[in-house]
Amino acid sequence: MIKNYQLLKETIHHVIQNSGLDIGAAYFILKDVYNDIEKTYYGQLNKECLEEIKKQDENSIEEVSQNETT
Predict the structure, then answer these.
(1) Which of 29, 35, 46, 56 has the most CB atoms around it within 10 Å of its CB?
(2) How far is residue 27's CA from residue 24's CA, in Å, rounded to a whole number?
(3) 16 and 26 in contact (C-beta within 8 Å)?
(4) What pLDDT does 70 receive?
(5) Sequence-distant (≥ 6) Cβ neighbours of residue 29 within 8 angstroms
(6) Is the pTM of this model over 0.85?
(7) How far is residue 37 from each of residues 10, 26, 33, 58, measured CA to CA in Å?
(8) What is the tens place of the pLDDT at every residue in 5-40?
(9) In 3-state terms, the chain is what percent helix, strand and coil (to 5)?
(10) Is the CB of residue 26 less than 8 Å from the CB of residue 19?
(11) How far apart are CA 68 and CA 70, in angstroms?
């Protein structure tokens, strides 16, 4: 994981340096990329939270159903 992190960081740095873009353009491109990644990250967190809530609801329903039959 750390190896992949370092490789990605170095690759991005290398591409920026060799792109011929000025630092302002590189900044705004990275800012856009960051915003896209942030949206994806929070979307994934929300998905996982909803799945956990669904599992808890299903377990609660099963417990109620079992208690009613006994």
Answers:
(1) 29
(2) 5
(3) yes
(4) 60
(5) 21
(6) no
(7) 18, 16, 6, 32
(8) 999 999 999 999 999 999 999 999 999 999 999 999
(9) 90, 0, 10
(10) yes
(11) 6
Name the residue with tokens 């994806």: 40
Q: Is 19 helix (H, G, I), strand (E, B) or coil?
A: coil
Task: Give the chain's length.
Answer: 70
Residue 40 tokens read as: 């994806």
- Chain segment 31-68, per-residue pLDDT in tens: 999 999 999 999 999 999 999 999 888 888 777 777 76
Give the pair of three-digit tokens for residue 62: 């099963």
